[in-house]
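Researcher: Next entry in the queue.
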Amino acid sequence: MRAVVLNDPGNLHVATMAYPSAPGPTEAIIRIKQVGVCGTDYHAYRGNQPFFSYPRVLGHELGVEIVALGASVRGLQVGARCAVRPYLNCGHCPACLRGKPNCCPKIQVLGVHIDGGMREYVAVPASHLHPARTLTFDQLALVEPLAIGAHAVARAQLMSEERVLVVGVGPIGLAVTQFALLAGAQVSVMDISEQRLAFCQRRWPDVTCIDGRGDPLAALEHHFGDDLPTAVFEATGNPQSMESAFSYVAYGGRMIFVGLFAGDVSFHDPLFHSREVTLLGSRNALAEDFERIIAALEEESLHVAPWITHRATLDTIADMLPTWSDPQSGIVKGLIAI
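Model: Structure for this entry, 338 residues:
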């Protein structure tokens, strides 16, 4: 079968791989239909993605069809359309037993620690498939990035009418914005991209868009006065932005790191302590996040078609990915048809 392999930073090509063998007792073989391209893939392409090694088949935002099931699998059927929860955890470590499989120290994420979905077929644990009755493969490929945002908002435990700031409105920031709005928050977003801010304004007219170029703190103080947001979601994965964001949080507020990068974050301790800031990390997502999002998409309370701005195939993605990774490309979400 064909697969797209990232041999090393900047070196992406189509290769031939062996088809997966018959599924194990608890496995499923899936046919990949659509793959979403995300920040993880761009970071890996540029060589600055943590927890990553080369060569690697990228891709963990997957819309798939089941083609074979192991003998012990129940509750799934061949032909079912599914989203894939791509965080393969061990199931028996303290984190897994505490209900935090997203924090499993032995976790293997498709497209990061092990080969992912930019190929025609792959075998996965059947327990990590989430079937849908009516969703398209496009919609299913967007479930995973939506789950990242939903999980981050759940971590923050937002209150109705709470003043929220989302820093960085790429796909993950958009997902955070969507679920913060569904939680009843008053949401503002900040980015350095005019195109992304314009997209947010068209999508959510009630969201306040703040230009992050120049002096971001001055821009926030101009908008909020001395009452800064009580929940700040940092979704850029940019170290300078992450460190600056500590000054955006209200006294007694919360900072939620959704993005990450391969390095250390530092902050001014007197500022952190004087404001009694609560710092939260948000990693991956849980099974219940996937189920909630699939239900919302099927009920049509979520609409994500406008997010899909770019498309490619296995044959064209090697040429297109360098362009897509340029912030000036205007991309919101790119999908690859396999």
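Model: The chain is about 30% helix and 25% strand.
Researcher: Noted, moving on.
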